[in-house]
Please model this.
Amino acid sequence: MRGEVAALTAAFLWAVSTVIFGRLGKSISPLVLNLAKGCVAIALISLTLVLRPNVQPELSATATFWLLLSGAIGIGLGDTAYFKAINGLGARRALLMESLAPPLAALIALFFLEERLGTIAWLGIVFTLLGVAWVISERVPASDVASDVVNSVASPNLRWGVIWGLLAALGQASGAVMSRGVLADTAIDPLWSGFLRIAAGLAVLVVLMGWRGQVGDQLRPLRSRQLIPVIIIAAFFGTYLAIWLQQISFKYTPAGIAQALLATSPLFVLPIAATLGDRVTGRAVLGVLVAIGGIWLLISTT
Model:
């Protein structure tokens, strides 16, 4: 139960932090926001590792490479795409797009690990895609309170939001498969694997910012005394704690079950969205249930 509880707790923390990051996205670019939360998380993990001196990893060069690559793809590129998806789709829909990660992970495992799925598993993929499409295609009245946080605001944003959401789900899925492979085959502590993944993600973000140029201008929003405390709080729960819990779930729970439980964030974000004033329709609830049901079909054969 240790891994299952960790996965569900991480899903809840992601749901809460996603709404916060959705608000921050109005003032900070996705790239800078991703960099800021990563810096906060790496500082907190480093402090924790200092206080836990007996968890140094004994990793081969190959295992280290795969963890670093999983962080570069899943965090550096995937999280940046995810924040762009939040800006285009809103928190609720962006989280639902993330429910594509488990079936995408299954496809990646099929091609690279030769893990073949049965008929029920492929039905799960179909239901997951249908659930996502059902909610994404919903037209949301512009008069909804807090619609600027939890809903898309224009069709061009919606189209680009879907594209970024797909890229984010692909990054999460591929990063999860790499991370699970190392965690399952070594004695590495989940906190250390989280440290390596975030460090690699930050390296990618620094390169991307340098490539865009005018780094000082990009970082200017971080000078705000109002935004910094919010970023620290969101990063503490949504990055530091959530990634640590995610790595624990991959360590102690089969990948399919862990991914399915991590994908339950949409169930947590619906009541949060309702509290913020968003009108949660029956169609949205049905779409989430279909998507989550598809995920459970997918993992029923594992």
